[in-house]
Write a structure and sequence with these properties.
Length: about 270
């Protein structure tokens, strides 16, 4: 397994700092979810006209681009056109960066559609994306997130799209904390389709000033109540050799530790486990 950082965790760093610190802290790769003020890297000059230089810098630092985290929401019918346009841009950038993994969301309005109808909408959207030039050479990974956290729900969409270019991104924190599933239960359903993983830890402290609406608050991996080590061991047992990303959501939760603290702490925790 290889480990990567997400740029969500360092929203104030420029590209050069991201690359330098990634190498310094001992990561193997970078998962891009924006750089500084722009969440969509496909519109930044460093990833369009200057993408060859960006790849050179990343490669010379001994790093890879582990993934591009898009904003595509496949189960939102009114987003069909914007999804397709973002997918086109992302294909071009991913190829230029020698990156295969593209994260997509499910989303969708369960007050208007039932889950089966949303899965059908998602299936149609993904099929449109996979028909784009170059799309089938990448991995479009559907994250266990928003309305699609429990593995049995995700299976509705995964089963309808058997194409190997479509798979699952297992957010271990979400399936255990929000979905109330054990790693064994989640893996039994989506495991064969998992192409990428996200890791973050949390404790249930509803009275804490930093608690989220559900009473949980994020803490450094290995110091919380989520079964992260168990899930990683399960992945190893089944021969997973993909990426494990530390999803330090500093952009969305500014109260979290600075990346200069959180990133090296994560590396120190996970290396003995893999």
């Amino acid at each position: 397994m290889k480990i990567c950082l997400t740029t969500l965790g360092c929203p104030e760093w420029n590209l050069e700092t991201i690359i330098a610190r990634g190498r310094e802290y001992g990561f193997d790769g970078i998962d891009f979810r924006g750089v500084q003020d722009q969440i969509d890297i496909t519109v930044l000059p460093e990833f369009t006209t200057g993408v060859a230089e960006t790849l050179r810098q990343i490669t010379e630092a001994g790093l890879e681009v582990s993934g591009i985290a898009s904003s595509i929401k496949v189960c939102v019918p009114e987003a069909r056109e914007t999804n397709r346009e973002e997918a086109k841009r992302t294909i071009e950038v991913a190829n230029a960066l020698k990156c295969r993994n593209i994260r997509v969301f499910g989303g969708g309005d369960l007050e208007i559609y039932d889950r089966a109808a949303l899965a059908k909408i998602g299936c149609e959207c993904v099929e449109e994306i996979l028909a784009l030039d170059g799309a089938a050479d990448l991995k479009w990974l559907f994250e266990t997130h928003d309305n699609w956290i429990q593995s049995t729900d995700c299976k509705l969409l995964l089963d309808s799209i058997p194409d190997p270019a479509f798979g699952a991104l297992w957010d271990i924190g979400h399936t255990s904390r929000v979905g109330a599933e054990s790693p064994d239960d989640s893996y039994a359903v989506i495991g064969p389709r998992v192409g990428h993983t996200h890791v973050k830890d949390a404790v249930y402290e509803p009275e804490h000033e930093q608690a989220m609406d559900d009473g949980w608050r994020y803490v450094p991996p290995g110091t919380g109540q989520l079964p992260l080590a168990e899930a990683i061991a399960l992945l190893q047992e089944h021969g997973y050799d993909g990426w494990i990303m530390f999803e330090h959501e500093k952009r969305w939760h500014p109260e979290l530790p600075e990346p200069e603290v959180a990133f090296p702490a994560f590396v120190g925790w996970i290396r003995p486990l893999i």
